Structure formats: structure tokens, C-alpha cells
Backbone:
């Protein structure tokens, strides 16, 4: 377990009525999505139990679910390792991202309230203000896209996004570490906000799909360089 994960891993509140194994599973999934665990990091049952202050049984059950979902794979020796996606999986993931992000942008252009549009503007400004911090840009980018999905007003689309986030967590390094990508991503965000604000669903969908295509281009460059 990385030092970052050790300091940031927290148990989902027990007062939710969730079984303990479910709370542990959600805590670990949340940590993966937040980047506290990265591809190649090792997860040990005993360490996770100590960090979350629970017994090893619910941790064992939660880790089994993570392995079944493809988050982790058995490591040589003890424990599990957070796995990384191969190129074919990355292509499949981005193909779905393009479809879902395009649909979300189209619906957001039809349904977004003015406060939601204002929030997108604020998020984009914060994104640009952290151009020297790739990790923070990645976090804000995720929040930005989640805001568009919420503005789409479609629970089924939102559910599909939640599944997609599981795969995104396994991508590894952010594409905002590539020279020039923060600038072009910001331009794409601004154009997308403008289309949503102008109530232009066709344009918004096209811009969102192009945005994901450019993100894939950067992702493939990272894969080639690693």
C-alpha cells in the first residue's frame, strides 16, 4: 500500500446501514477512483484492515469483489496488485466514454439550469488556474464531467458513468502530464460550456465526442512512452 493511500483511506460511514464488507468495498473503490491507489500498487489484507480499523474478514470479502470486477490481480507472494488496462481495454473504455460523454453533453444542453452552467464555468476556471498541477487538474476534470452528467437529468446515464469510473481508475498517469494537453483540454471545455449554454445539443454532443477523442490520442501517447 502506498503512503498516500495509507494516509487517505477511510471507511465509509458505518451509520449508513451497509454491511461492513460493503462499506469496505466502497471505501477501496473510492480510494481507487481518487487515485490513492495506482496501477502496480499492492493491497495487503492485513494492512487494509489495520488502516480501516476493521477485522480481516470484511476486507477479504471486499478484496474478492475487487478481483472479480477486474480492479486487482493476485501478486507474486502475498497480496494483490492494482492492475493496469492493456491497449485493447483502453480503446474499449474510450469508445464508451465518447458515446456516454456525447449523450450527456446533448442532454445537458437541453436541461442544464443556469446555476449548473455557472458551476461549469467556475470549474473550468479552477481547472485552468491549476495548470502547473496535473493531479489537481485531473481531479477537477473529473468533477467537471460529473457535473455535465448531473445536468443531463438522466439516472440511467449517470449509472453508466459510475461503472465507467471504475475503468478510468485503472488508467494510471493523467494525460495532463503531456505538454500542451492542459491548454487544449481547457479550450475544449470552454467550447463545450458555450454550446451547452447556447442550448445547442448537436454541437455540444459533437464537441464532447471530439474532446474524448483528443483525450484518447493523449492516452495512447502515454502508453507508447511508458
Residues:
Amino acid at each position: 500500500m502506498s503512503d498516500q493511500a495509507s494516509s487517505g483511506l477511510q471507511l465509509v460511514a458505518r451509520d449508513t446501514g451497509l454491511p461492513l464488507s460493503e462499506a469496505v468495498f466502497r471505501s477501496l473503490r473510492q480510494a481507487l477512483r481518487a487515485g490513492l491507489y495506482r496501477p502496480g500498487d499492492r493491497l495487503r489484507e492485513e494492512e487494509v484492515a489495520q488502516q480501516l480499523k476493521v477485522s480481516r474478514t470484511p476486507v477479504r470479502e471486499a478484496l474478492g469483489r475487487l478481483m472479480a470486477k477486474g480492479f486487482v490481480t493476485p501478486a507474486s507472494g502475498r497480496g494483490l496488485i492494482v492492475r493496469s488496462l492493456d491497449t485493447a481495454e483502453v480503446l474499449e473504455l474510450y469508445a464508451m466514454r465518447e458515446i456516454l460523454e456525447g449523450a450527456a453533453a446533448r442532454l445537458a444542453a437541453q436541461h442544464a439550469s443556469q446555476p449548473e452552467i455557472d458551476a461549469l464555468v467556475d470549474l473550468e476556471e479552477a481547472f485552468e488556474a491549476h495548470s502547473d498541477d496535473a493531479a489537481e487538474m485531473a481531479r477537477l476534470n473529473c468533477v467537471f464531467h460529473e457535473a455535465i452528467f448531473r445536468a443531463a437529468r438522466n439516472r440511467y446515464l449517470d449509472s453508466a458513468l459510475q461503472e465507467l469510473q471504475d475503468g478510468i481508475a485503472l488508467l494510471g498517469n493523467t494525460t495532463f502530464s503531456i505538454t500542451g494537453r492542459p491548454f487544449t483540454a481547457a479550450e475544449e471545455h470552454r467550447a463545450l460550456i458555450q454550446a451547452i449554454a447556447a442550448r445547442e445539443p448537436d454541437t455540444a454532443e459533437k464537441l464532447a465526442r471530439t474532446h474524448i477523442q483528443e483525450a484518447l490520442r493523449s492516452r495512447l501517447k502515454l502508453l507508447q512512452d511508458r
Q: What stands out?
A: The chain has two domains: 3-82, 87-225. Residues 87-225 form a domain with the Four Helix Bundle (Hemerythrin (Met), subunit A) fold (CATH 1.20.120.530).
